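Below is one such protein, fold included:
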Amino acid sequence: MKPNCPHCNVNLLYYQMDSRLEQDAQRAEKEVNAVNRFLNMLKESSIASPLHIIRLVVFFLPLASMCLPMFWAGHKNVSLITLIMSIVNYGLDFNAMLGDLSYFFAVLSIVCVVVFSLVVIIGSLFSAGKNGYKRNVAFSVVNTVILGVLGILVCANGGMAMWGFYLTLFLYGLDFVLHFLCEKDSKGKISTVVCVLLCVAIAVASMAMPKPVKTITDYAGDDSDVRVVSFNVASAFGTKLEDTDSMQRCKRFGDEMRMSMPDLIGTQEINSLWVAELKKTLPEYQIYAVARGGDSSEEKSEMNAVMWNTLEYTIVDEGTFWLSQTPDVESKYTYIDENGEEKSAGCNRICSYVVLDEIKTDRRLLFMNTHLDNSSEQARIFGVGVILEKMSELRSNYGNIPVILTGDFNEVEQDEAVKTVSSLLNNTTDPSKKKATYQSWGYRINSDEPIDYIFTTGNGKNYTVIDNLSNGYISDHFGIMTDIKL
């Protein structure tokens, strides 16, 4: 290859160089002009004036307002933050959402606001382009109508709009006003007024919808000897964002107990804060509670508290033992699995008991309360063995007295530990009334089987699942109650 043509001696590298350079320059100029036009449009759309800057900020604010409580739906506060937390902690269960339409529509409204806010933000970058004003108004109308309709559906299905919802509506109305102020042509005046009035109408309509009626269940009594409750109260969990704050739930628990006035109450996952508060709010009851140990803090230090009505019973004996190979000392069950590896229960597990004398009859009974392990079936089976052995020992010491055993067994009725207890004591669960007692704050459907039980040497009736949610959740479990004839 030679740089020059052999016939005319023209240098091929520089052949028509001037025309090619001119073409490149024209092409570059077109590209620069296109970029400059785009940048100018972005500037005109977003920061052309202080009003444009304010409008740009307002476009982002619905994403923030949704982090505030938007609705009281599904018997809890619903916001973007609580929705994210529920997905992280419990996954996404569409069946659970559809089980409560107020919660379903609340979630749907938040998802729609997120999606449409992102669309509006992207569309706002082209506000100064052709039909930009009409596009902005159309986006805002769609956002407002969809949020409004979903908000009214939440209220129509037993929920309630909260201030995050009204703040988001206000921001949509402010969008309309800013669209008009930023538009040089006043032709948008009428549409802006109409859209602002639409926001006001939706707000009024949602406020006019019937509000949830909050009640306390009135439990009728009968002539049975003993009314017993078992309740896993999840004292260390919950947040104010979801309206599941621990001490607020403690008050709800006290309200429910005052209505049913059981003779005996067995609680699981209670802590010292709840015990101190319940001593004030339920002064008729005496409480015996021992921390199981091994927990990270006082707030999370779980107890299996037993409570008894002092107008009905006096204390004879009390005690706590660990469901391990060393039940008399704070400890955790350990074992060797089939692979020769050392395993253990998920945490320390205990059973607390009291021996009580009934004031009116001098009749004596043994009341035991436990919480079996959640992570190891072998630990649950072993724990039941320890409980039954201690029960036999106490009955031998006190003259074969009647027994009531309550607890969260972390098993359904077909599992081994529950079957073992059922072979010696009567399971008071009514097959016609039973339902899932662990409900994950309503975020998941956990079958139809209970994992909380009341066993007795007597006979139970009037089995009731304490599932009143009109005041909000008491726990991530439902309580159970049974009247027992000893």
About this structure: The mean pLDDT is 89. The first helix runs from residue 17 to 46. The CA atoms of residues 283 and 399 lie 31 Å apart.
